[in-house]
Amino acid sequence: MPAPALPAVSEAHIPTPVAPSRGGRPPDRARWDPWVLAAVLFAAYTAVSVGRYRHMTTLSWDLGIFEQVVRAYAHLRAPVSDLKGPGFAILGDHFSPVTALLAPAYRLFPSPVTLLVAQAALFALSAVPVTRAAARLLGRRRGLALGLAYGLSWGVQRAVDFDFHEICFAVPLIAFSLEALLADRRRAALCWALPLVLVKEDLGLTLAAIALVVAWRARGSSPRTVPYALGAAVFGMAAALLVLTVVIPSFNTAGTYDYWNKVSESGSPVDGLGTKLRTLAWLLIPTTGLLALRSPLLLVALPTLGWRFLSGDDHYWGTDWHYSAVLMPVVFLALADALTTARHSPRAWLSSYAAQLPAAVAAAALALTTSLPLAQLTEAGTYRKPAAVSGVERLLARIPDGATVEANIGPISRLTARCRVFWLGNTRGSTPQYIALENIDGEYRDPVGYAGDLHPGAAYAVAGKANGYVVLERRTAG
Questions:
Q1: pTM of the model
Q2: Domain ranges, ordered by start, for the chain
Q3: Which residues are bridge partners to 464 per DSSP?
Q4: Are 369 and 167 in contact (CB under 8 A)?
Q5: Burial bucket for residue 25 (CB in 10 Å: 0-12, 13-18, 19+)
């Protein structure tokens, strides 16, 4: 099959390539740069996320939910999360069958740490296409600078620090897709983007956005690609609609998509405008110096920003947690795309600004890291398990394998690998054998009385206490 014709470009728009070696390939060291960077990032991400687990400072119930789901897949059972409700089918909450890919690793290493390490590996892997694309377009040093800035970006760091989430699969898929697009491998770009529909229900719209950008860029130089791209865009939108209106409701006991109310209760688009504008500023200024606005690749960010800013839930508007991770490869590769022409602009100020920007965003990322999760790597305590945690683990170990346990956030991740765990107050009539409470702040002044309120007619007694945690055991009559 003949190679597709390349678009005609002026000499001024030809990017500076990496100097080739004798075989026409980049030097060996340059080829390995993205992988070395990814290995370093993997070690850093793993240290932070596993360190939080070892310190029992998990921020939410998500790690427990996903472990229950992956555990079910690993044992060839339906993906159920009892933390969402006894027997709750997780595909009735979010459509993320991609998490089944973790089942073999989890079967070998049944621990929430397996999920955290896998997430760290996927985020680190996404730095490879970002660095490689930037180096191909801008040269080795600038490419490494952008790759480092991406790896240290606030959106990725926040996601690494906040439990496990299915979007860790989306981030490398988007990065590889946009790398292929920038290399004019348009069909490869579509192929990398297609699996996004299996990651989360809203990402079909991101697939559609990528496909439309592919069609736009291919319209003059590769017209045969345009129908494929438009077909992928239609597929992405149809998949999102089908999942939201048919697939998820069919698994949901209420027969609906539980998050519609996030939009229906949104109120005015100007609600939280200050927070939304700050998020846009964080997204575009320290990461790209606003230059990414010159690239059509930035359109790929619109679906994610759209549902977040239209939502009535203010948790989606800011820069916390994992919601911005999928935007990081978009803005950095949009910057790389914009720099290829801006560096050769006849406007002196623009060409000078573009020439210095990769180093500037890398410096900004390093400076911001001092107040972001990776700053923990400089603290000796990150690498040590506190004695208090060991005491709590010994307490929770008294709960036998296979027991039913009702728990709040603290104990969850120590129990989901071996017990059936329910969320505190959401057993829906079931009376668990044990109740495990994180009570460091003294919220539960009378744990036994609180257990009686949760389960009238059942008798619980304190089975043990340790460092602000308490375990209650149900007593049988007689």
A1: 0.91
A2: 30-377, 387-475
A3: 471
A4: no
A5: exposed
